[in-house]
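WARN no homologs supplied; continuing
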Amino acid sequence: MRYYPIFVNLENKHCLVVGAGEVGKRKIQSLIDAGAGRITIIDTCPASEELTPLLELDNVTFSCREFDDDDVDGKFLVIACTSNEAVNWRISNLCADRGTLCNIVDQPEKCSFIVPATVKRGDLTVAISTAGRSPAMAKRIRRELQENFGEEYADLLTLMGRIRPLMLGLGMETGDNTAIFRTLVNSSLLEAIRSHNLDDAVEILNKSLPEPLHVNIPELLDGLV
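OK structure emitted
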């Protein structure tokens, strides 16, 4: 199966996680990191001590009980991490009937979406999928990307995020803005950040940015080089 790659905005969305074991805790943390609006957790076992810090968050609730069909109602996204095949299939079918996004961990045949291997550097996220054919290969590729994408990529992205609103505020033509953005990301600015070479970074920005923004260069580079 060839999957459609997509990044989902979970802000103000209600998510459900069934099963709070080791895998479940990782999934819960990933939803928190993604800014999920509300997270409901259901497990037949009491919450572990490791889960306690997560349950202290205002948008996270835990219920120690069996899963009920009604638990799926009103949920934007559902993740099941149980070892019970019957419960997993139930959740999968209930989500399919409701058109709810569903992931049954390590069982792609029961899912409407899978969670790819990812490499994260600040706001940069690189996702890898092998269409379920080889999770081992996805992990290998992730390791290779982790070795090649250092924290300087996060810093460059932060810098571009600072530059963008200032550029747009100048009211220039879209084509001119695009040309400047491309010049910056294809310059040696990344290497200057990697090597903490402030002089080179300043010189590149002076050459690439419109003159009205030159006064902003110190604040643009603050904390990055």
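The chain has nine helices and seven strands.
OK
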